[in-house]
Amino acid sequence: MRKFNVNEFISLLILILILSLVSFLMITGDIYNFLSEKSAKNLNIVLIVLPILIIVQIAKVFTFNSRDDVSIKFLPIVITLVVSVLLVFRSHNIDEEVNGNNFNNVISHNAIEINHETHYILEELEERGEEFLGKYIIFTGFVYKYEGDKFILAREEMNCCAADSFIIGVKSMADEKFQEGQWVKVLGKIEYNGEYYLNINEYIKISEPKNVYF
Fold it and tell me: Which residue ranges does the record assign to the DUF1980 domain (predicted)?
């Protein structure tokens, strides 16, 4: 009779599903919907440890059962992980957020784009706006609130996870008055009139992106 430990196989399956889920979230960047970039980096340890555990667990599968069969008790966990993996795979759409340069204006080719890797620029604009005066910016955000004829074009930033997120953004001005909450991708120039602000030249109205956090 060939040795096959069902309990250990279920444990192996759980480890593989967890590794698949974490790997997919990390590769696609979807992890940033739940964790900040700094916190997500800690998951690299998981991507190192889990393959080692999986290799060790494979050896345990080909042993005789040393305890009562408890595989049925693990089924809810397995089913939950399988459904989670399938839902994440299905819902992922790399084209959901407007990426890259979508403006026809030749100026946009030399514009500074504020994204997940460069969102620190928003803080620099507030602290050292004179360094960006006259420069063109590309930024995707939502209309947070109006203050007179200007509004805050904003994103949410996480320190650790979604629960501690907070609003960051830049004062902006456009010819059109947007509804609060509207998501737009804009091309604008940093100008000064008593305060530094983004004067929007072009914009594209978009749906809320899948990853709303910086």
Answer: 103-213
pTM, two decimals, is 0.62
- The pLDDT score that the predictor gives to residue 97 is 45
Backbone angles phi and psi of 205, in degrees to 5: -75, 130
Closest CA relative to residue 12, chosen from 72, 52, 66, 67: 52
Q: What is the pLDDT of residue 202?
A: 92
- Centre a 10 Å sphere on the Cβ of residue 101 and count the other Cβ atoms it contains: 14
Q: Which CATH architecture has domain 106-205?
A: Beta Barrel (2.40)
Q: Which residues of the chain does CATH 2.40.50.140 include?
A: 106-205
- Angle at the Cα of 82 (from 95 to 69), degrees rounded to 5? 170
Q: Give alpha helix (H) positions in the chain.
A: 6-28, 37-40, 43-61, 71-91, 120-127
Q: Which residues contact 13 (CB under 8 A, 6 or more apart)?
A: 78
Q: Which of the four pLDDT bands, split at 50, 70 and 90, describes residue 5?
A: confident
Evaluated on CA atoms 202, 207, 211, 213, the torsion sign reads positive
Residues 6+ apart with CB under 8 A from 6: 65, 69, 71
